[in-house]
Amino acid sequence: MIYKSCHLIEHGISIDINSIKACCLSREFDKGQLMILPYYGNNTINWDELFRIKKRQRLLQQGKTLSACEGCYNLREENWDDDDYISFINFDHWNQCNSDCIYCGVRKNKPKTQNNILKPIKELIKSGKFKNNGEITFQGGEPTVLKEFEELLKIFIKQGSKIRIHSSGILFSRAIRDGLKKGAVTVVISPDSADRETYKKIKRTDKSNKVWENIKHYRKKLNNETSANVKVKYIIIPGINDSYEQITEFLQKIKEYDIKSIIVDIEYTYANRNINNISPHIYIIMDYIENFAKTNNIEYALYDSALYADKNRTYDKTCNFDEQNIKSQISSYIETNKSKNIQY
Ligand code: SF4
Fold first, then answer.
1. Does the CB atom of residue 24 touch ligand 1 within 6 A?
2. Report field, pTM of the whole predicted structure over 0.90
């Protein structure tokens, strides 16, 4: 039937620390997220009940957009099927991490929790109501610290799912490596720096060498088709990792480790406070990295805040990539825009 909906209302679940929702998008606070069932990691999910609720939500959505979803960019008109199955799962059922990034907002002051989910996931798969045409994502804290992570990952690799993992890269995971080799897994690691001192400032842990070593291991045995599935991210944090020298060192490391995909973002708090007044040097850095990627045949993508800032550019695209020009522009704008920096 043709109506406006989204793939997550239809066939998605996001497993949180105390509930199962349709998605993890936190939009306007008063609207909340599209709740399905409470779940506290007790290893029991009543899947029949969950599918009943999802069916009811689909029916309501056919008549009028659900209030939790009003205005969401994911809504689109399509011919949706009415079958009961799940093909998008976002795991967000823990908040433990082995890093302590200055910009992290994941339940900072809440007690650290790691719920169980393996048993109900096995039941879902056994019931035949999981379809592998969607995507599995791990959001939470750091997935490699999850006790059930390796087994969960193996299950979805076996299912032929597309799996996207954000990891600190501090712990090496055999399941990630195997999934990468099979082309089932994409891993995003965000060292935000190439040098140890900057890394320590951002992550408040001394693991830079370990992280780059793991990036190298993940990348090592991939072929041309899968090489871009190891994605290295740089979150630009004004005042911390935005000097010409820091960016250049990062790009040298990208080349040295033969990385084929770079993601750029802007630290959220800074971007949020300055969205109409982003310092020009941030745009210059984005353009500089993009130009480097193009020249070296590397995939380049912007995430969240950087994507938004780029769409609403307040500074023209850089054309002159002469080293001296870039260097002097970045340092002069850093100086004149210091007052906007966030004190972490
Ligand atoms: S909020 Fe958006 S992404 Fe989430 S279920 Fe609703 S329409 Fe889909």
1. no
2. yes
